[in-house]
Each structure stands twice: as C-alpha cells, then as structure tokens.
Amino acid sequence: MPEFTHHDLRLLNPSFNSPLVDTLEELSYLRRLAMGGTTPAPIFFQLKEIFHILESLGSARIEGNHTTLSEYVEHKIRADRNGEFDQLKEIANIETAMDYVEKTVKPGGLLTELFIRELHALTVKDLDREGDRNPGAYRTTQVLIAQSKHLPPEAFNVGQYMQELVKFVNQEDPQKYDLMKVALAHHRFGWIHPFSNGNGRVVRLLTYALMMKYGFNVQAGGRILNPTAVFCNDRDKYYEMLGVADTGTDEGLERWCTYVLTGILVELKKVDKLTDFSYLLPKILVPTIHYSVERKLITRLEERVLMLALKAPGGAVKSGDLADAMPDLSAPQRTRRIAKLVKARMLVPTAPKSRIYTAGFANSYLVRGIMRLLTDEGFISNKLIG
Fold first, then answer.
1. Domain residues for 298?
2. 9 within some domain
3. Strands 356-359 and 317-318
4. Do residues 322 and 358 touch, judged by C-beta distance below 8 A?
5. Percent of the chain whose pLDDT exceeds 90
6. Which of 139, 191, 296, 382, CA to CA, is 20 to 30 A from 332?
7. Are residues 360 and 269 both part of a single domain?
C-alpha cells in the first residue's frame, strides 16, 4: 500500500570518490565548452527540429502512448490536423510546449509556478485520454502514481511544496550545484505530482527548461539537447530509479542524480558529434540522400540539387548555381522547379524571399531517411522506431 513520507528538498554533498562527482565535473566542462562546431547553422537547426520530434515522441511513449516514429513522421509529412488521433495530439502538444520553453526561458532567468502551470496547460490541451479537466490548475484530490510505492502529498499541501520547489531552483547556490539541482528538481516534481494528469510530460519539459536556465541554452549556440532520451530508452529503469529516489535518503538521491546526469552527459556527447560537419556530412546527410533515392522518396534531380547545396561553401547555394544540377531545364523551368523544392522544404531559403538556399531535411520525405541514419549511428533508440 503506497504511503506518504516527507523528506526535505536539499542539496547533496557526495564524497570525492562518488561517480556523481565525476559526472558533474565532465558536464561542467561541456557547459564551458563552446559547442559551435563546423556544421552550418541552418542545417544544425533543422536537426534540432527533428530532435524535438524525438523528444516529444519519447516523452509521450513513457506515459503509454504507442505511436511509433514512422507513424508520427507520416503524420508530420501530411501536416493534416483534421481528425487527428488523441495520441498524435499528445505528441504535437509536447512539441508546442517545447517551443514555449525555448521562447520563454533565459539563462539565469527565474522559473515561476505560472510558467510550470502554463506548460501543463499546453501539454494537456484538447486531449481526451491523457488530458485534464482543469489545464494549468493544481489537483484538488489525492492521486496514486502507477508503479510506485510513494503516495504523493495531500492536495492541500501541493501549493506549499510547489512554492518550495520553485524557490529551490531559483535560489543562488554555487554553480557546481546547478546540474545536481536539475536532477533533484525532476524527482521532487514527480514526488509532489501537482496535477491530476500529465505530470510526467510536464516534468520532462521542466528538465529541459532547467538545462537552459543553467547554461545549456539551445538558442545561444544552437545546441540540440534531448534530455528525454535519457529516460525513454528504458521506461522500466526510469520508474525503478524514481523509486530509489523516493526513499529520500542521501544514497538514494545520489543514485538518482547519477542516473539522470550520466544520461544527459551521453546526449551532450552526441550533440558534439553533430556539430562536426566532417562527421555529419558523410555519416548522416549523404547516406540519407542515397537512402531516400533508393526508396524512391526523392528523384535523381532532387538528389543532385541536395548534394550541390550540401557541398557548397557554408552549406548555402545561390539559385543560379543550381543550374549545374538541372542541365536539361531552361531558366524558367529551373525557377519553377526550385519553387517546388522550396514548397516541399527540400530547399530552405536562408532568409525570407532570399534566392540563397540550404538543403532541407526537416518536415519532408527526407526526414524518414535522416531518422533511419540517426538510428543506425546510435542517436535514436530502436525502441522509438517500432
């Protein structure tokens, strides 16, 4: 029978030989490292968009959503929200909430209860199966957590515990504690379980927001960060480790922090690889194009255009230079073909009405190929595919 046991929200002081100390040191180094890399920014931000899809899908699947990556990609390609299934809406809502996080959270800025409640409202909007009758409002009744021996605090104490949590993440502690606070706040939010539904989705968004607040900012340097991948690869392990932290002991909380932060470290190392264009081009982008041609997702002409754009200086090509990829077309025909490629998002203008383009991989048929290659190279779990 689940029971409620209070334990204080606090920072930990692990011993020098703790695995947590080693992980914290390595993460702190990566935070200081300028992860700009050589990958052209327009291509990098397309990859960030793809990783947002993956994070949204992974977060939803932890909660029992059975949508596969291929199903959701097909849905994204069609871009048809009419008659959308509840499980597809759930994933789309997480994407919307992630956009809200990126637009709202600033490095060193304050996170508020209002911000967290807005995350919840965006996440459960218009959902039946995984919705909430009172989006953005704290629960007013007792709840149970599936697969947990922990009983969350009574509803009348939720506001007090959430105030304490917000104060904890905003208080000025030495920088060495920032990353530990990310992991501790993630557990504490789940421990409070402030909403009637959607808590898991919201806490993973909150983790994303905290990473940005503490200096891993996707906007300042264009980094991809997919913290949900830490958890979605092994749903059972995630719940097991939450249970370890629920004990409230220093040892249990330290094991939880090590689990979370080791996963984030692995994700950041993946990001570092994607900033290296000498790796990204031959290992991911070129094979993606070949994969798409072989499966007749794109034409040979489109293959030539994309390869020309990819190998252009800075990853950007002028419209006039694309004539080399379309030698059999007249100038008016090339103009019309380029317009079609832009509409299909296989070519992306570098600015509105610009005639300089980069190769497009997000939200087109190429996204199937790029996700397949990302899976083959270990960036995506096979569990998301199937």
1. 277-385
2. no
3. antiparallel
4. no
5. 52
6. 296
7. no
